Amino acid sequence: MANVQSPFGFSPEGTVGGSTPNFRLSRRLIASTNTTPIYTGDAVVPVTSSVTGYITQATASTVALAGIFWGCRYLSLSQGHTVWSRYWPGSDANGDVSALVIDDPQAVFMVQAGGTAIGLTSLNLNIQLAVGTGNTTTGQSGMFVQSPANTATLPFTVVGFVTDPPGAPGTDITTAYNNVLVTFNNEIFRAGLTSVS
Q1: 97 and 31 housed in the same domain
Q2: Based on the number of CB atoms within 10 Å of its own CB, is 105 exposed (0-12), middle (13-18) or buried (19 or more)?
Q3: 26/97 same-domain check
Q4: Which of 42, 68, 121, 177 is 20 to 30 Å apart from 141, CA to CA?
Q5: Do the domain assignments include residue 193?
C-alpha cells in the first residue's frame, strides 16, 4: 500500500539506546495573549526575550526547541472553569496557560516525511521541521520533517525508519510521506551538533 500524506506531528516512540522511556513531561507556560494555536505533537520553542518560561509553536528556524507539546490546561473565559485540552486554540484563557512538554533529550519520535522520501542516505543527518496544518477537531499536529542536511542548527536528527508492518502506509522508505524516527538535535537540553555521516 502506498504512503499517504497525513502528517501527525511528533509521536513519542522510545528513547535513544532503548532505555525505558518516561518522556519527562515538564510544565511550561503559554501566554494567554499568544494567538498561535499549538497542537499535540507540535514542536515548541521558548519565546525570545522572555525570562518567564513562555513557549510558542516552533517554525522552520534555528532556534533551540523547548520540546514537544503534549496538551494543556487553562481557565476558560467562555466556559467559566478549568479546561484540559489536547491543543491551545489561541484564545479563551484567563491568565497563563499551563502546558505539558516532552523535553527528554533522549526521546525518540515518529514523524512523517514531506513530499520527498527520507531514506537510508539520510540516516544520522539532521533534519528540519515544517509546520503543516493542525486539526482543531482532534487537536493533533500537522507538523512533518523535510530537508535533511549536515547542519548543526537543525532541530532533529534522523535515527531510523518505520518499516513494519510491511506494506502499511508510511513504511515505504523509497517514496514520499514515509514515517521517520528522529531525536532532538538542537534542543534546550541538547546543543545542536553537526550530523554524523
Answers
A1: yes
A2: middle
A3: yes
A4: 121
A5: no
Give pTM, 2 decimals.
0.94
The number of folded domains in the chain is 2
72 lies in the same domain as 144: no
Alpha-carbon gap, residue 176 to 6, rounded angstroms: 11
Query: Does some domain include residue 190?
Result: no
What is the full per-residue pLDDT of the chain (197 aa) written as tens digits? 689 999 999 999 989 887 777 777 999 999 999 999 999 999 999 997 666 679 999 999 888 999 999 999 999 999 999 999 999 999 999 999 999 999 999 999 999 999 999 999 999 999 999 999 999 999 999 999 999 999 999 999 999 999 999 889 999 999 999 999 999 999 998 888 887 75
* Set of cell numbers at residue 117: 522520501
126, 56: one domain: no
Looking at the fold, whether 92 and 114 belong to one and the same domain comes out as: no
- For the record, the C-alpha cell of 128 comes out as 528540519
